[in-house]
Amino acid sequence: MNLPARPSRSGAACGPLPPGLWRAYQLEGHGQPVVASGHAALDAELPGGGWPLHALTELLLARAGIGEWRLLAPALRQATQGRRSLVLISPPHLPYGPALQALGLPLAHMLLIRAEPTEDRLWAIEQTLKSASFGALLAWLPQARAEQLRRLQLAAQAANGLVFASRTAMPANNLSLVFRKG
Q: Rounded to whole angstroms, how far apart are CA atoms 96 and 146?
């Protein structure tokens, strides 16, 4: 996996973030439990060496469906061990079962929720976060507002699974990770 060069600690290469947001490299030493990403180069860059539990991780993508499954599959496999559910909320395309099986993801423990409009998606995410049975939650939120994401972050603090929100927000061919602190 080739990762782009790390931007300066000031964030100048990517522009400033709104108050209350941090880029992954700015969270070094946060002490939260993590799940290894399954990609050694990425784990070396992520705070704590993996995807954080008890937090909302936003994947800011040029377009949904450009690689989030391959990126997340190793961690999703680990997070869903022991028959824990993988919850998908409003993916932009119907997931293709054989491809997910080829990535080692447990179809028998996958729950797909279609919710429109955004308020219904947010409600479904919050209800899932209250559940102790999920291992990982992937939600696609192309139009979520900052205050909605903040509310999800607060709810994610009590969750015991991985929580990802995929949003379309970056220029083409770019991936950025943003963690929201509680």
A: 31
Amino acid (one-letter) located at 117: P
Under a CB-based contact definition with an 8 Å cutoff, are residues 140 and 83 in contact?
no
End-to-end CA separation in angstroms for the chain: 30
Burial 111-135 (b: 16+ CB within 10 A, else e): eebeeeeeeebbebbeebbeeeebb
pLDDT digits (tens, 9 = 90+) for 96-136: 999 999 999 989 999 999 998 989 999 999 999 998 789 99
Q: Alpha carbon 68 to chain centroid distance? A: 9
Q: Would you say how long the chain is, in residues?
A: 182
Three-class secondary structure of residue 40 per DSSP: helix
Prediction pTM value: 0.77
Question: In the structure encoding, which two tokens stand for residue 47, read together?
Answer: 């705070």
